[in-house]
Amino acid sequence: MSNLLTRRRFLAQSAVIGCSAAASPLLTPVSFASAPWDTRLVVILLRGGMDGLDVVQPYGDPAFAAARSTLPVGPARGAIDLDGFFAMHGALAPLEPLWRAGDLGFVQAASTPYRDKRSHFDGQDLLEAGTMSLDGARDGWLNRLLGLQPGVTAETAYALGRAQMKMMIGDAPHSVWAPDTGFDMSPQALRLAELVMRDDPQLADALAEAARLSEEEARLDEADGDAGRRGDHLAVADFAADQLRGEARVASFSIGGWDTHARQQVEMGRALGRLSATILALQSGVGADVWQKTAVVVVTEFGRTLRENGTRGTDHGTGGAMMLAGGAVAGGRVYGAWPGLDEADLFDRRDLMPTSDVRGHLGWILRGMTGLGQSDIETTVFPGLDMGRDPGLLL
Predict the structure, then answer these.
(1) Which of 319, 307, 300, 314 is nearest to 115 (CA)?
(2) Which stretches of the chain score pLDDT less than 50?
(3) Are strands 294-300 and 175-177 parallel, antiparallel or unpaired?
(4) Half-sphere exposure of 205 (CA within 13 A, CB side)
(5) Is residue 391 part of a domain?
(6) Residue 34 domain-assigned?
């Protein structure tokens, strides 16, 4: 199986440099995986460093408004009050019914072990590796999870989207899919390719899977005639939901647009609009029964500075926020120990101080969703992690 994965990754890389293999839908990843358990896990990576202080605003801390003179803060300026201390950004208003129903929650002041350098690339790589450092990291934590589960096949593990999901890289089987990849072969050309590849079972299987996924995309486009015009995030959500109604059990993909150095009020509103639409598309797409067994976990590589900068934005920071959605989550709460925003309480006197490890929250979600043992999570999925006490993120 590892040879097949190597060939798939080669095709994906070839697409980047203009190889004609770009006609195959087995290219860049957003990831899924189906497995013996009955719950569904969706992991969404927000690339660019989401400002968790803007998304889940601690308006009850007097230092917050003082640090942000132009960015709108609190319910008086359009945010949606959650608990009298935190408010969620007004652009998340479409998700308010989920909060009221207990299907939406947040974790504040969380971070990976990444500190100080504030590089998007290194921060994302470490988050996707799930390790303490990048030294020797060669696979991703979601793939290591799959490797510990019996019965996982290529048909139950998918990678979707146009950005490589390193959290899915590894020896456990998975497939890849991206919207509008244009697998456009005539029946005669497909038959010729099958004849050429018939002596290589792995390539023949890859070709058959490419044709199957293309047919699936065409079926979805027919059901929703404007899917190609709705944006990649919704095309991916539609495809993900369709698979999660069947054998798929885990999905992972990314959404960009979170590097808000300037004009944050405008850019954050747009980004949160895309995220809200994606989550609601997943909810409606999987249907009520599957939604009750689903946990959507939204993560980002780091948070942003407490104080806004001179271009009405915020710069790369440390502590940030996670978002949780789905019928399986214990929503209606903001989790995490609040560190305070006085200068002495900040990380490097500029960033929100992390009080929990993103991997710990992910670990407890994996434990609850898959039944995997805590020892396996702490030694294999997230090596070196101490999960600590169960924060109770799931019902």
Answers:
(1) 319
(2) 1-30, 221-229
(3) unpaired
(4) 15
(5) no
(6) yes
Tokens 């993909």 belong to residue: 253
pLDDT of 26 reads 34
3-state helix, strand, coil in the chain (%, to 5): 45, 15, 40
Cβ neighbours of residue 323 under 8 Å, at least 6 residues apart?
55, 104, 105, 106, 275, 296, 297, 298
Which residues are 394's β-sheet partners?
329
| Tokens at 201, concatenated | 């079972």
160's CB contacts (< 8 A; 6+ apart) are 29, 30, 31, 32, 176, 177, 178, 179, 236, 239, 240, 251, 253
Find, among 243, 255, 343, 317, the residue nearest to 285 by Cα.
243
Show Cβ contacts of residue 101 under 8 Å, excluding neighbours closer than 6 positions. Answer: 331, 332
* HSE-up (13 A, CA, CB side) for residue 278: 27
Buried b (16+ CB within 10 A) or exposed e, 88-120: bbbbbeebeebbeeebbbbbbbbbbebeeebee
C-alpha 183: how far from chain center: 26
Extract the tokens encoding 133: 């450092």
DSSP codes, 290-328: HHTTEEEEEEES--BBSS--TTSS--B-S-EEEEEESTT
Per the listing, tokens 């790589």 go with: 125
Instruction: Count up the domains in the chain and report the number.
Output: 1
**Is the residue at 386 inside a domain?**
no
**Are 165 and 130 spatial neighbours (Cβ–Cβ below 8 Å)?**
no
Number of Cβ within a 10 Å radius of residue 347: 20
Give how far Cα 43 sits from Cα of 40, 83, 255, 312, 368, Å. 10, 26, 11, 30, 15
* Secondary structure class of 288 (helix, strand, coil): helix
The CATH number of residue 211's host domain is 3.40.720
Q: Is the distance from CB of 128 to CB of 139 less than 8 angstroms? A: no
